[in-house]
Structure formats: C-alpha cells, structure tokens
Design a protein that fits this description.
The radius of gyration is 26 Å and the shape is globular. It is of the alpha+beta class. Among the domains are: about 105-185, no CATH class; about 190-200 and about 270-285 and about 295-440, no CATH class; about 445-500, no CATH class. The relative contact order is 0.12. Strand 7 (about 190) and strand 8 form a beta hairpin. Helices cover about 35% and strands about 15% of the residues. The strands form seven sheets. Strands 3, 7, 8, 10, 11, 12, 13, 14, 15 and 16 form a ten-stranded mixed β-sheet that branches. A three-stranded antiparallel β-sheet has the order 21-22-23, with no helix packed on it. It is a single-pass membrane protein.
C-alpha cells in the first residue's frame, strides 16, 4: 500500500521496548487538576479547543503549522469518533444504504496504549517466566506468551487477567498489552444523540481493520485518506451534521423500547430459559466456565483503590479529587443518557442511591456507580448491546471518550455461588477503567440459604423488609423466652409467601426487594434524568444504619449551607460552608443540578465538570499561543 510509507507507519504504530524488565517503569502523569483549573478553563478557552488535528504525516505534503505538529501526534479521544461520523456522512451523501455501513476498529487507535507500553528499563529476553516475574507475577502460569514481532514492539503477549496485587505501572502495561494483542474488538459503535432531538442513538457494526498490522493505526490512515483533506476535524461539528441528516438514516436509528416510568411487572423479574435466547448469546453463556470469575479488577500493591477499576482499561489510581469526580460524573451522565435512549429502566442503588438522597450527586468518596435492573432488562442489554462501545455526542463539547458495555456470561445463574460473579454487567469508561456496576434482580433459590444463616447481615436485611424494627427486636432474643422462635417463624412465613407469589427478588449479593418497593420514580442525578425506587427511604434505612440521618462520614461532614459533603481537612465545621476556593466553586457549579431531601426540584443542568483531558489540552494550546 504506497500510501502507508514507512515513516508514517513508524509514527503511527505503537512503539515500546520489548524484553525483560530490569528496573522500574518511568511513566509520567500530567499535573493534577482542581476546580480552580475548571474556572480558568471556562474563563479562557482556546478557540482551537474543539479541534482534533489530523496527524501531520497524513497531510499528503500539505504543511501543518509547526507549533501544532507535536499536538497532532498526541492521542486525542475525539479523533476516531469524528472520523467515524465522517464515514456516516459520506454514506448519506453518496446515497448508500446505511445498513451496509461498517466502521473499522483497532484498540491501538481507540485508546492511548502507547503511554502504557512505552516503558523504560525493559531489555530484550526470551523467557516468559522471567518477564512475568519482573512484573510481579508470582503465580501467573499461562498469562504470558512469547511472540515474534518487529524490533521496537512488545514481544510478549498477555493472554488473560491475574488478581495478584501489582504496581500501577505493571497494571497499566498488563492491560494495554492485553488490548493490543488479545481482546476481541467490540461488536458495534453506539452513538448517543444521533437524532435531532438528541434522544435517539445510531448503532453501526465494527469490523477489524485489515489494511495493516494490528499494532499500526491503519484504520486512522484509511479514514483520513477517504476524508475531505482538512487539517482539523471537529467532533461537535460532525455530530451536528449527522443530526441534521438523521432523516436519511432514520430506519437505522434505534428508538427507545418503552417509557421508563411505566409500572414494573412480576414477569420482568423471571429468569428466562437459555433455550429462549438467541444462538449467539446462548453460545456465549454455554462457553463460560461455571466457577470462573468473569470481571477482574486492577488489584494494586498496598492499596484498595484498584478494585474500582477494570484491569483492561486501568491507567492510574492517582487522580486528584477533582479529576476522579469529573470522570465519574462524565461516566454517570453517559450511562443515564444511554439507558434513556435504549429505553432500559435502571435505577440507582446502594451508595449511589444514598448520594442521590443527600444532594443528587455522587458521594465525593465514591469510586463507582451502582445500579439495578430487571432480569428482562438484563437480557435485553445482553442481546442488543453486549460488547458495544458507546460514544456520547450529547454534550455541547463532546470529549469522544468511549464506554464499553460488557455483560457477564454467568448472568442467568441467579445464585450467589462462590461470590465471584455477583456483578451481572458493567458499563466501563475505556479511558480510565472506572465503571458502573450493574446487577439484575430476579426470583432465585438464595432465599432459603439466607433464611438459614442466623445472625448474618444478609438475613437481617431480608427480615427488615417485613419488620423494619427487626434489629431492635433481635437485641431482646436472649432475654425474652420464645421471642426468637416466634419472630423468625413469622418473618419466614411472610418472606416465603411473597417469594412463592413471585414478588420477592434479589441480586446475587443477596439484597432482597419487594416489587412494590421498586416502582420507578423519575428524578435527576448529576443533572441528568434518572430513576430511583419509589420506596427509597425504606430501602436505604435497612441498608445503611443512620445513612439518611448522619451528617458525618469518616473524614467528611455534610454542610447544610453548601449542600455538599466537605472534607474536614479543607473545611472547618465551625464555619458555615467553606472558605477554600475549590469548594466555593464546587458549590457554585453544582448548584443548578443539586437538590435536597426536602426539595427534589433542580434549576437546570448547569455546567458539568470539565474533563481532565480537555483541561490538559487547553493548557497546551494556550501555551502554544503564547510561545
């Protein structure tokens, strides 16, 4: 292929040093950002902030302004989605049937793998065991395989996950290597906000690009070659053009399945027979090892933070508080928009529901989101969207970050088992590894096991469904003769009656709920439409002791004046609100979409947190304009 000159391939390929680690990685992370950086960004945005620069070697002899050459070679999460939308627009312009469109995909182009793989201190070597040991893998037989690749590329292929605690650098390398060499490509790209009303989506199949080696960004090269020859491309502009052309692709656009506020029915919680599923999903389920853990996290040496990140997409756990909450807010909004556009009724659960209760925001110490769905919703998600990448175009300033929909093939197994597969699905931010934990609720055989575990937390939660004062009553068991037996017998009869009627459901982590508690109530969370269970107070009170009353949690306290949870080290409790600028700005920016337990209305969507990548990009553009 004459267009793919050696220089281009060299510049656009993944570059890393193969061999055995003889020392530590030296990965530099960008500076930490705060709410003050967001303020400065909003006040002084570069006029070029929306632009994605085409890599300069692909400009076919045309000169790019020298100060933007380096910038054009940096990873930009918006570039590939913008080029994909260009393909959609070309199909429309040429009158081709949109249903025949397929988009090229390579992990090396979709994500920033180079920063993880370009590690210093790796020498050449031919022994996988030594390589594994150098990464800190002590019992990782079968994790690694030696492969033959050109010089300058990793000559070890990571075959699968390990749950051993590792360093952050080893974790990032492990995940990036697995993506580069092993993980299958997603099945489809799902563009949120493809219609004029921004409430419908476009789903397009993805195919593996075969124009070059898998470590080359040949898909980018091909897409640019077929493009309009411009030096820059705007994802927001491409999204607007697709929306204006939505009538031409209407038959290929997916509409919401059902209104989210209709009543739930008991049939939605029944577990389907595997024979009722389509052949692809059936094969996926039957090929899964029954006792093998499906989702794996990025376990780290000396830290529990890694358990909140998917191991494949892990980058770092060293985010500043602003960066982590900004990413989590972006993930939250994308998930809520996704479920709205596909008509999936998913309600907030556990700590996420508690965060909503206090002020309509994620708790500042939370690392992930928890949601629940019906069995029917889980099956629909698996059939229609499993292994999809989701791109959110609905923001005024879309970031291009992708989200991976991954459904656990063990989702039909409704008993807890060994506890390895209690999470049924995840919606994963592919830029960080942070995720939404998705658990389905169904009628299961776990009821008897929980009933027969006296004194356990699971049994106490179950009993409190029918007797909110059960824990207080239990304190008298040793003092009142026959009280334990009569109480347990009464509650067991009530529970079994509802279970037999198909009205008592649980997730695989043995949290039980009645149908009447789960009726959907529309609300807002992080400024987006969301669903909570109508009996949220009853649910929260049995899951969290004083969770809806306590104004302190570890090193945080709730400020009634600010309507925020504030850290004690920054904000003195004796002062109403807080004098620190970061938190004054946080209060101001979240005010339009915060609410309180007594007033659930919000003033508007407000200004979302600016993505850390956008802050960094703006800083580099500003520095160039001054240089």
């Amino acid at each position: 292929m004459p267009y793919m000159l050696p220089a281009i391939v060299a510049l656009l390929s993944i570059i890393c040093i193969s061999g055995v680690l003889t020392g530590s990685f030296s990965t530099e992370y960008p500076r930490s950002y705060t709410t003050i950086d967001m303020k400065e960004y909003l006040a002084d945005r570069s006029p070029l902030i929306g632009q994605s620069f085409i890599p300069w070697p692909l400009l076919d002899g045309r000169e790019l302004n020298i100060q933007y050459k380096d910038l054009s070679m940096e990873y930009d999460p918006r570039l590939l989605p913008a080029l994909w939308l260009g393909e959609v627009l070309d199909f429309i312009k040429e009158g081709k049937p949109i249903e025949s469109l397929e988009l090229p995909f390579k992990w090396v182009s979709a994500l920033d793998l180079q920063s993880a793989l370009q590690a210093t201190g790796i020498a050449s070597g031919e022994d996988c065991i030594v390589f594994q040991s150098s990464l800190g893998l002590k019992q990782a037989e079968g994790i690694c395989e030696l492969i033959e690749l050109p010089d300058g590329l990793p000559n070890y292929r990571i075959m699968g996950p390990t749950d051993e605690p590792l360093s952050e650098q080893a974790r990032t390398y492990l995940g990036a290597n697995y993506l580069l060499h092993t993980l299958k490509i997603p099945k489809r790209a799902v563009f949120l906000g493809a219609g004029l009303q921004k409430d419908i989506l476009l789903a397009v199949p993805l195919v593996s690009d075969t124009n070059g080696q898998y470590y080359e960004k040949s898909d980018i090269i091909s897409l640019v070659k077929r493009g309009n020859g411009k030096q820059q491309i705007l994802l927001s502009g491409q999204a607007l053009r697709v929306r204006k052309s939505s009538n031409a692709i209407f038959d290929h656009i997916r509409l919401p399945n059902a209104p989210k506020n209709s009543n739930l029915s008991a049939s939605e919680f029944q577990v389907p027979s595997i024979a009722d599923l389509d052949s692809t999903l059936r094969d996926n389920i039957e090929s899964a090892h029954p006792e093998q853990k499906y989702f794996h996290e990025a376990s780290l040496f000396g830290s529990g933070k890694g358990f909140h990140y998917d191991w494949r997409f892990f980058k770092t756990s060293n985010y500043s508080p602003y960066e982590r909450t900004a990413i989590l807010q972006r993930l939250t909004r994308a998930w809520l928009r996704f479920t709205k556009e596909i008509g999936l009724r998913a309600w907030l659960a556990h700590g996420t529901l508690l965060g909503w209760y206090w002020n309509g925001l994620n708790m500042p110490w939370d690392e992930d989101l928890d949601v629940q769905i019906t069995m029917k919703g889980l099956v629909d998600l698996a059939i229609n969207y499993n292994q999809s990448v989701v791109i959110d175009l609905t923001d005024n300033e879309p970031t291009g970050h992708m989200y991976f929909v991954d459904v656990n093939p063990h989702f039909l197994q409704r008993e807890r088992g060994n506890g390895a597969n209690v999470i049924d699905a995840r919606f994963i931010d592919m830029s960080s590894g942070l995720y939404v934990d998705i658990t389905g609720l169904a009628v299961s055989d776990d009821l008897e096991a929980v009933q027969n575990s006296p004194g356990s937390k699971d049994q106490s939660r179950l009993h409190k469904i029918f007797d909110p004062d059960y824990e207080e009553t239990a304190m008298l068991f040793d003092f009142v003769e026959g009280l334990r037996e009569s109480t347990e017998r009464r509650l067991r009869e009530l529970e079994t009656e509802q279970w037999n009627a198909g009205l008592l459901y649980n997730c695989k982590d043995d949290h039980f709920f009645l149908l009447e508690e789960l009726e959907p109530e529309m609300t807002y969370f992080e400024g987006e439409e969301a669903i909570v269970p109508s009996k949220y107070m009853k649910i929260l009170n049995r899951e969290y002791f004083r969770g809806t009353r306590a104004l302190q949690h570890q090193d945080w306290w709730f400020s009634q004046a600010f309507g925020l949870w504030l850290p004690r080290e920054d904000c003195d409790k004796s002062v109403p609100g807080c004098k620190k600028e970061d938190w004054i700005l946080e209060e101001m920016y979240t005010r339009p979409y915060r609410h309180s337990p007594k007033n659930r209305t919000i003033d508007g969507r407000g200004v979302p947190k600016v993505d850390p990548w956008m802050l960094g990009r703006n800083g580099r553009l500003s520095a160039m304009s001054l240089g």
